[in-house]
Design goal:
This protein is mostly helical. It is built from four helices and no strands.
């Protein structure tokens, strides 16, 4: 490598991975607090009302960082890949 060349760094951001991690964290928090995680997550996705998600362990603040359509897209992709 010539010392006159400019190095280029590319920061990879795997949005799908982040969304999956958030879904996992939210699911776990809802389960720990005694809620039905599936019903609560569906309620949030359909209504957009973050009060469906517990604030325990930062779950509510995590899920609102992701658009609801991105959540739904990851859930459908996961379902389809497991067929």
């Amino acid at each position: 490598m010539d010392n006159n060349e400019t190095l280029k760094w590319k920061l990879e951001y795997d949005k799908a991975k982040v969304v999956r991690e958030i879904i996992d964290d939210v699911y776990d928090a809802l389960k720990v607090k005694g809620y039905d995680p599936i019903s609560q997550i569906v309620g949030y996705i359909l209504s957009g009302d973050p009060t469906y998600i517990t604030s325990y362990n930062g779950a509510r603040s995590k899920i609102v960082r992701v658009e609801r359509d991105e959540l739904l897209e990851e859930l459908v992709k996961s379902y389809i890949s497991n067929l």
